[in-house]
Amino acid sequence: MQILDKNKENKIWPLFRLGFRVFFLGGALFSAFAMLLWILSLSGYSVLSGVSNPIWWHAHEMLFGFALAIVAGFVTTAMQNWTGVPGIKSWPLAIVSGLWLLPRLLMPLRGELNGLVILLDLLWLPIVAGMLARPILKTKQWRNLFFVPLFVFFSLLNALSYYGAVSGNWLLSERVFITTVLALTALITVMGGRVFPFFTARATQSPKIEPLVWLEKLSLVSIWLVVFAWLLLPRSSGANTLLALLFIVAGVAHLIRLSRWNYQLVSSVPLLWILYIGYLFIPLGLLVMAAALLKWGVTISLASHWLTAGALGAVVLGMIARVSLGHSGRVLEIRGLMVVAFVFMILAGVLRGLLPMIVPSMTMQAYHSSAACWIIAYGLFCWVYWPILSKPRIDGHPG
């Protein structure tokens, strides 16, 4: 069913015809730039002159600047398919993406304590939540209402992160950032369950694996319990032990879940194996988080990077590569530079998560090499996908 007016669509700059275009390209480009600034900052260069806490900036911008921009692009685009209501486009999309971009540009110069930076950054996520709510309420598709409170939750976490920065409460900021990491991980597991088996069946011409109800409930309930337990439980030995047990249950459940998704069939399909390897970082990361809570020689920061540099980086890169092809009217197939990008992204996760565990003396080298791999991976995406995302669909359809 055609739900878009082609004549009106042709008057819109292609970058603002659907959310995936501006947010995928902008988020990927920003992540590579932010990672470059992070490497330079670690090396002693004064590239974050306005920032009082570079670690806070790095964590905040990779989560609320990069990851949530990608989520916003994906959901605002998918909502059109789910509801049949035209998605956000034209000047409303330009405004909300501008509200996302301005704090990213201003923060290195003005800092995370600047009132204008804070105000602008606290606006864009609630606006996205409102834009998602409109088509859901119009069509009464309550199944997809999940994304509205989720964006409200991320908005509250963003506000709490700034409160932690302004009050100088690093422990609060760290709790908020890890909660955000876990919530994004949980979102990947929700979306992964929806689409990974379908993608696999379609690409490999094999039967779609039907979910086991008890395993789905155990996997999703346990990981969302981890999210809210991390945010709300007091920090004590007893609470940490309970939380570690939750992490172990969630990790094992997701490992079993992944093992059922015909992973044996995906080795020849890059758009699939990047997603499966990315997803594998989730149960591994959850188990390493449990080890950190039990003080088994791993820090929380190191454990969380299994979920960020590993799972988030790889799954996001795989998804934006696939979605961008599909929504631009192209064949779902990649080769050459994008395969190289996928390899470098996996290397980024392995180097950041595993190398410091095996050779602690090489932790700083792990930071630099992982960041360099990230820059190459997302830089290659921007190079390959710039013409795809900034030009009209090749089939002439709107979108």
From TrEMBL:
Protein name, UniProt field: Heme-Cu protein NnrS
Keywords: Membrane, Transmembrane, Transmembrane helix
Source species, domain of life: Bacteria
Organism annotation: Oceanisphaera avium
Membrane-spanning ranges: 20-42, 62-79, 91-107, 113-133, 145-164, 176-200, 212-233, 239-259, 271-294, 306-325, 337-355, 367-386
Coiled coil: none
Secreted recorded as keyword: no
Signal peptide feature range: none
InterPro entries: NnrS
